[in-house]
Design brief:
With about 150 residues, the protein is an alpha+beta fold. Helices cover about 15% and strands about 40% of the residues. The strands form 2 sheets. Strands 1, 3, 4, 6, 7, 8, 9, 10 and 11 form a 9-stranded antiparallel beta sheet that branches. The chain has a two-stranded antiparallel sheet with strand order 2-5.
C-alpha cells in the first residue's frame, strides 16, 4: 500500500510539473484574421486604440502590436500577426490601468503565444475605462507583458 501511494504521488507531481513547465518549450501559434471580426460584428470595425506590447522582465518577454476595435456596439481586442509572448501556463488577457492589471477586467484565456488573435470584449467591460492590455499568468500571479493603449483620433 505504501509503494502504491508513493507511485501515485510521483505521477501527480510529474503531471503538475509537466503542466507548469511544458508551455515554456511549446509555442502555440494562432492565425486569426482581422476579417473574422467583421463576420462577428456589425459592419467594418474601426480602430479605437492601439499599442505595442513590452515584456514584464527579462524572462517574461512580449512584443507586437495590439488594437481595440469597435464594430456596432461590440469591442474587440486584436493581437496583431506580429504578436509574441513567452508561453506559460494559465495565461489570460486582461485590461489594466496605470501600471496595474485589473483582476476584474478579464477578457479571455490567451489562445496562443504567437500570432494574430481576436477577443470579443465582454459586455460588462468598457475598454475606454482602461489604458492597458495585459497578458497575465493566473497560476503564478505574474505579468508576462502589457501594452499601453493610445487613443486613435
Amino acid at each position: 500500500m505504501k509503494k502504491l501511494s508513493i507511485v501515485i504521488f510521483a505521477v501527480v507531481v510529474l503531471v503538475v510539473v509537466y503542466w507548469l513547465s511544458s508551455p515554456l518549450f511549446i509555442d502555440r501559434k494562432v492565425g486569426e484574421k482581422l476579417e473574422e471580426i467583421t463576420s462577428v460584428g456589425e459592419g467594418a470595425p474601426s480602430v479605437v486604440v492601439e499599442g505595442m506590447f513590452v515584456g514584464a522582465d527579462d524572462f517574461h518577454k512580449a512584443n507586437g502590436a495590439m488594437k481595440v476595435l469597435k464594430t456596432g456596439e461590440k469591442y474587440f481586442v486584436r493581437l496583431e500577426d506580429n504578436f509574441m509572448v513567452t508561453n506559460g501556463p494559465d495565461l489570460f488577457v486582461y485590461f489594466g490601468k496605470n501600471g496595474a492589471y485589473d483582476p476584474n477586467a478579464q477578457i479571455a484565456a490567451l489562445k496562443g503565444n504567437i500570432g494574430g488573435q481576436n477577443y470579443e470584449v465582454p459586455v460588462n467591460l468598457n475598454p475606454l475605462d482602461y489604458n492597458e492590455v495585459w497578458i497575465w499568468c493566473r497560476v503564478f500571479v505574474v505579468p508576462f507583458g502589457r501594452a499601453e493603449m493610445r487613443f486613435v483620433l
